[in-house]
Design a protein that fits this description.
heterodimer, A: about 350 residues, mainly alpha, two-stranded antiparallel ribbon, two-stranded antiparallel sheet, 6 strands, about 5% strand, globular, B: about 300 residues, ABC transporter involved in vitamin B12 uptake, BtuC, 12 helices, about 75% helix, about 0% strand
C-alpha cells in the first residue's frame, strides 16, 4: 500500500522539482514542451494499460486522440449563428451550453461552451471505442493490429478529407479552456506555470486511478488474461468484458489528452491522427517495458520532451521506428527493469518470456 | 450512368485491383513461409518504384526496372537476415512490432534519400494522354502493361511453386516446418528466400504502377493495408483467391468515387477490411474451419 502511493508522491516531487529547476535556471520556456509532453503522457499511460496489462495491441490510438481534439476544436470554433432560429439552439444558449464570444475581428461567434465540448468529445470517443471495441477485441495478433491500424487510418483520412474540419490545415483559433479559479488551459505565456501543473496534475490523477486499478480485482483479472487468456476464461473471468473496459478507458484517456492539448495549443492538425503518431505511442510503451506504467510514463516524459524540443532533428520519426525495432529485438521487456543483467544473460540463452503473450 | 462510363470505372478498378493483388501475394508468400504478416510489405513497393525512377535517369527503362527489382530483393533478404532470422520462436506481437518499426525506418530513409517529392516512371509505351480504343472504351496502354505483367508474374509464380524444387521446398516449409526440416530442407533459407521473393514482387508491382499512381516516400502504408484487405478477403495464404479479391476491392473502390468524394477512397476500402474482419475473418473464399486452426 505504502509503496504504491510513495511512487506517486515521488513522481509529483519530480514534476515540482523540474519546475523549480527551470525557475532557478531561468529557462521556464522549457515548460511549454513539458506541458505538451504531459498530455501525450496521459495517452501513453492509458495505452500502456491496454497493451501491457490487457495484452491488446492498438496501432490506432492517435485516432482517439484526434476524435477528442477535433470534436472539441470544431464545437468551440464553429459559428452556429446561422442556426440561431432553431428552438434547440435557443434552449442551448439559455442553459449556457452554447455561448457567445467575440472573434478575432470583433464579430460575434455563437459556439459551444468548452466544458460541454470537452464532455461531448470524450463521450463520443468512449462511445466509438465501446462500439468498435466489441468486434475488434475478438481479433488477435495480426488481425487486431491491422484492425486498429485501419481504424487509425480511417480517422486520419476523414479529418484530412473533410473541409468542415479544415482538411490539411486543421482547426485553429481554438479558445482557452476556462477552469474554476480564473485559470485557463491555454498557451498564453502568463499561465505557463499554472498550465504545467494542470497538465501534470491530470497525469498524476490518471496515474493514481490506473495504479489503484492494477492493485484491484480488475488488475488481477488482467494479469491472468495476460498470462493465459484461455485459462483466465476457464477460471470464470469474463475476459471479453475486461478487455473492452480497458479499451474504452484507454480511449477516454487519449480523447481527454486530445481535448486538453488542443485547447492548450489553440488548434489541432491532421498529423495528430497519423499512423506515425500511433506507432510512436506504442514505441514509448514498448521501451517503458510494456507492462510497466511507471516505465511508460518516465520514457514518455523523456522521449516526448526530447522530440518536442527537436533533439532528433529530421530523424524524429526514424528514431521512434528504430527504438521499436531495437527494443523488440534485444529487450522485449523494456529498458527500465530491476534485473537488467539477468535479462542480458537470458537474451543469449533463449528469447525472453513475457513477449510471448499472443 | 451510361455503359461506357461503367466500363471506365471497371477498368480503373481492375488496374488498382491488380496492384492490390500483387501486394497481397507478397503478404501471402511471407505468411506461408513464416506465419507472420510483414507490415513493411508496402515499403517494398515504394522502394521498387523509387529506385526504378532514380535508375531510369541513366539506364534504359527495362534495365532500370530490373535493377530496382534486384536491389529491393537484396534489401528484402537483408531485412530477414538482420532482423528476423536469429529470433528463436518470437511471439506474434513481437514480430508485428518489429515489422512496423521496419516500415517506419525504411520510409524515413526513403524520405532522406528522395525527399518529399512525388515521382513516376515514364509510360512504358506512348504518353500519359495516349489511349487505346477497346470496344468504345478508351484505356491507357499502361493499364494493359500493368495487367499483362502482373498476369505473367502470377503465372510464373504458380509454375515456380508447383514445378521447381525450390518452390516445392518452400511450400513444404509452409505446410509443416518441422517435417520439412526432417526431410533435409533448410527452413531458414526458405524464409530468407520468401522475403526476397516477396520484396521482388512488390518492387516489380511498384515499377509497373508508378506511371499511373505515382510514388512517394509514404505511399507504402496505404498500399500495405489495402493489400492486407485483399489477402484477408481471399483468405490469408491463398494467392489465387487474392487476385480475384484484388479485382473486387479495386472495382468497389473505383465505384466509391462515384458516391463519395475521392478523399474518402481509403475510408471505403478500410471499412471493408474491418467488416470482413468482424464478420468473416477467414475471407469470402476462405474455409472457416481451416481458418480456425491458424494462429492469428
Amino acid at each position: 500500500m505504502a509503496s504504491k502511493y510513495s511512487q506517486i508522491i515521488l513522481f509529483s516531487l519530480l514534476i515540482a522539482g523540474i519546475q523549480v529547476l527551470t525557475h532557478v535556471t531561468d529557462s521556464s520556456y522549457h515548460l511549454t514542451q513539458l506541458t505538451m509532453t504531459a498530455y501525450y503522457s496521459l495517452l501513453v499511460i492509458g495505452l500502456c494499460m491496454l497493451i501491457g496489462y490487457a495484452g491488446q495491441i492498438s496501432i490506432g490510438h492517435a485516432g482517439f486522440f484526434a476524435i477528442g481534439g477535433y470534436i472539441s476544436a470544431f464545437l468551440t470554433t464553429h459559428d452556429f449563428s446561422a442556426q440561431k432560429g432553431l428552438p434547440i439552439v435557443g434552449f442551448l444558449v439559455k442553459t449556457g451550453i452554447m455561448t457567445r464570444r467575440p472573434d478575432l475581428y470583433g464579430g460575434d461567434l455563437l459556439t459551444v461552451h468548452p466544458w460541454t465540448a470537452c464532455i461531448l468529445a470524450v463521450c463520443t470517443a468512449l462511445l466509438i471505442a465501446f462500439v468498435i471495441g466489441g468486434p475488434v477485441l475478438k481479433l488477435r495478433g495480426h488481425y487486431l493490429a491491422m484492425a486498429t491500424l485501419g481504424f487509425g487510418i480511417i480517422i486520419y483520412r476523414i479529418v484530412l478529407g473533410t473541409t468542415l474540419l479544415g482538411a490539411a490545415d486543421g482547426i485553429t483559433d481554438v479558445p482557452a479552456f476556462g477552469l474554476p479559479g480564473g485559470i485557463e488551459v491555454s498557451g498564453k505565456g502568463a499561465g505557463r506555470i499554472a498550465n504545467y501543473y494542470i497538465a501534470w496534475g491530470t497525469v498524476v490523477a490518471g496515474m493514481t486511478l490506473l495504479v489503484n486499478l492494477i492493485h484491484s480485482r480488475v488488475g488481477r483479472a488482467l494479469t491472468a488474461i495476460h498470462g493465459a487468456e484461455d485459462a483466465a476464461d476457464a477460471m470464470g473471468i469474463d475476459t471479453a468484458d475486461y478487455k473492452l473496459r480497458i479499451f474504452v478507458l484507454s480511449a477516454g484517456y487519449a480523447a481527454l489528452a486530445g481535448v486538453l492539448l488542443t485547447h492548450y495549443n489553440g488548434g489541432i492538425g491532421p498529423s495528430e491522427a497519423s499512423v506515425i503518431k500511433s506507432v510512436r505511442y506504442v514505441s514509448i510503451v514498448a521501451i517503458g517495458g510494456m507492462a510497466s506504467l511507471w516505465g511508460a510514463l518516465i520514457m514518455s516524459l523523456l522521449l516526448n520532451y526530447l522530440s518536442l524540443r527537436g533533439s532528433f532533428g529530421t530523424f524524429d520519426d526514424a528514431v521512434f521506428g528504430a527504438i521499436l525495432i531495437l527494443i523488440m529485438l534485444f529487450a522485449p521487456e523494456g529498458l527500465l527493469r530491476k534485473q537488467i543483467i539477468g535479462d542480458v544473460k537470458a537474451l543469449f540463452g533463449r528469447s525472453a518470456g513475457r513477449g510471448e503473450d499472443q | 450512368m451510361n455503359l461506357e462510363l461503367l466500363f471506365q470505372y471497371i477498368v480503373a478498378g481492375i488496374t488498382y485491383g491488380t496492384i492490390y493483388a500483387v501486394v497481397a501475394i507478397g503478404f501471402n508468400i511471407i505468411y506461408n513461409a513464416t506465419g507472420i504478416i510483414n507490415f513493411a510489405q508496402g515499403e517494398f513497393v515504394m522502394l521498387g518504384g523509387m529506385t526504378a525512377v532514380t535508375l531510369s535517369g541513366f539506364l534504359p527503362l527495362p534495365a532500370a526496372i530490373l535493377g530496382a527489382v534486384i536491389i529491393t530483393m537484396m534489401i528484402g533478404g537483408l531485412v530477414e537476415i538482420v532482423f528476423i532470422r536469429w529470433l528463436k520462436s518470437p511471439s506474434v506481437l513481437r514480430m508485428i512490432i518489429i515489422t512496423i518499426g521496419l516500415s517506419i525506418v525504411i520510409r524515413e530513409v526513403a524520405l532522406h534519400i528522395w525527399g518529399e517529392g512525388v515521382r513516376a516512371l515514364p509510360y512504358f509505351s506512348g504518353t500519359s494522354v495516349s489511349s487505346i480504343n477497346l470496344w468504345g472504351v478508351f484505356i491507357s496502354p499502361q493499364v494493359l502493361w500493368v495487367i499483362g505483367i502482373s498476369s505473367v508474374m502470377v503465372f510464373f509464380l504458380s509454375l515456380f511453386f508447383n514445378y521447381t524444387l525450390t518452390g516445392r521446398q518452400m511450400r513444404a516449409c509452409a505446410a509443416n516446418r518441422d517435417a520439412a526440416r526432417l526431410c533435409g530442407i533448410n527452413a531458414g533459407n526458405m524464409v530468407t528466400l520468401s522475403f526476397m521473393l516477396s520484396a521482388a514482387i512488390g518492387a516489380l508491382g511498384g515499377c509497373i504502377v508508378s506511371p499511373i499512381t505515382y510514388v512517394q516516400y509514404d505511399s507504402g502504408t496505404p498500399l500495405a493495408i489495402k493489400g492486407f484487405t485483399v489477402a484477408i478477403l481471399g483468405g490469408l495464404g491463398n494467392s489465387t483467391a487474392a487476385v480475384a479479391a484484388g479485382m473486387i476491392l479495386g472495382i468497389l473502390e473505383s465505384f466509391s468515387i462515384w458516391v463519395l468524394p475521392a478523399a474518402y477512397k481509403d475510408v471505403v476500402s478500410i471499412t471493408i477490411l474491418l467488416a470482413i474482419l468482424f464478420i468473416r475473418p477467414s475471407g469470402i473464399f476462405g474455409d472457416a474451419e481451416a481458418a480456425r486452426l491458424k494462429e492469428y
